[in-house]
Amino acid sequence: MKKREILLVAILCAVSFSSGAQDLNTGFFLDSYAFGHRINPALQCSSSSVSGYAGIGVDIVNVMARTNVAPSNFVFSLDDGTLVSGLDNRIPADEFLGGIKDNNNIILGLNENILSFGTRGKRGLSYNFEMNVKSLNNLNVSSDVFKLLKKGVSSPVVDINDFSLSSDSYVEFALGFAKRRDNFSLGFKVKALAGIASAQASLKQLKANYIDDTFSIVGTGEIKMAAAPLSIVGSDGVISTPEFAGPKDSGLGVAFDLGFCYNIGALEISAAVVDLGGITWKYDTEGTLYYDSADGEQFRVVGNESSISFKMLPLTVNAGVRYGINRMLSAGVLGTYKYGFAGILEARAGLTFTPGSILSLAVSGGLNNFGPVCGAALNLCLGPVNLYAGIDGIIAGFTAQGVPENPLNTTASAGLLISW
Q: What is the mean pLDDT of residues 128-145?
């Protein structure tokens, strides 16, 4: 594979290695959804037959993907069905670059549950505990980067701007409480946070020079990174293969969830604030990021220093209404605002069909700032085994080789719990 195609793969995958993915919003409409407390800590499992649950390793996994450009704009099919990148010489430049935005944004998130359990006690009390690994990653790449990779240098000096990456990953230990009295429920959750890694990097100016048959690239930017116990910057400032630097933490923090739920007959009104707090990161790398292709094609950090700073989590506000039409059908609406560098504003309506204690199905549709969304979810109770699966944005339109033809705008979730 040529160097420029390797670079394209690196750009598209740069955010996938690693702070919290959006939870399954369609789950708000789902009856007997044990993880409804993630949307609002006051929401309790609606099935009276379930008094508790537990799971290890396979409880629930959420994966979020938001892009403003379709994957099919980067991956193309040749006449023989072979898939190649848009940088392949057999793909015309106009065909590849015609689908690229001025600024191409990719947001990828992960929330993987490692351990969870919950129980419903006496006097309307319920408790839950979770251990999760969370990650949220945002990449922005200017179209100038792809033009340079595809067409090469068309003038002696080419300026490239707007290349940035932000990534936060941490472990979350969450303990939640909910108290129901008459028609009113109040929920509270406290979360201890242990940082895994945090990185913010940007190239403010990148110049490609082609003078006297000599090609060179010089770039400057900023970098800030906490990645204990690994060290990636040597004493000479060169970014290299990570090395173990001894046992130490990248940062510690705390966050809170607070919500309420009020019932008026068949009408349920709820609202919550989720992830109010943050992490104090211990940045062991902070300085000016410098790249010169004549310097061994390597990145250097100039003026490298260490620092400690507090960074807020992406705060989420949820507000919803559900109405029970009859014993099997209910309908509702949910509004969500996720504040932060990956700000998401969404409104959706949903319909739930629950024919019995074994099965609950929900469908939803709405709009967010990435476009229209349509989701579906189910909860299947087979004795003590509860199976969950859902998607907030059904991916429609694929090439013959299975590559999505539209920008990604979805959260997918699946899991298994043992209940009693």
A: 89
Is residue 192 classed exposed, middle or buried when 0-12, 13-18 and 19+ CB atoms within 10 A define those classes? Answer: middle
**Model confidence pTM above 0.90:** no
Residues in contact with 14: Cβ distance below 8 Å, sequence separation at least 6, in sequence order: 137, 139, 165
Half-sphere exposure of 239 (CA within 13 A, CB side): 21
pLDDT at 150 > cutoff 60: yes
**97: helix, coil or strand?**
helix
Contact between 319 and 333 under an 8 Å Cβ cutoff? The reply is no
The 10 Å CB-count burial string (b at 16+, else e) for 394-409 is: ebeeeeeeebbebbbb
pLDDT value of residue 19: 40
pLDDT at residue 275 is higher than 90: yes
Coil/strand/helix, residue 245: coil
Average predicted confidence (pLDDT) for the chain: 84
Euclidean distance between the first and the last CA atom of the chain, given in angstroms as a whole number: 54
Which helix or strand (DSSP H or E) is residue 350 part of? strand 344-353
Which position has the token pair 């130490």? 248
User: Which 3 state secondary structure label does DSSP give 180?
Assistant: strand
Q: Tokens in use for 348?
A: 């959706």
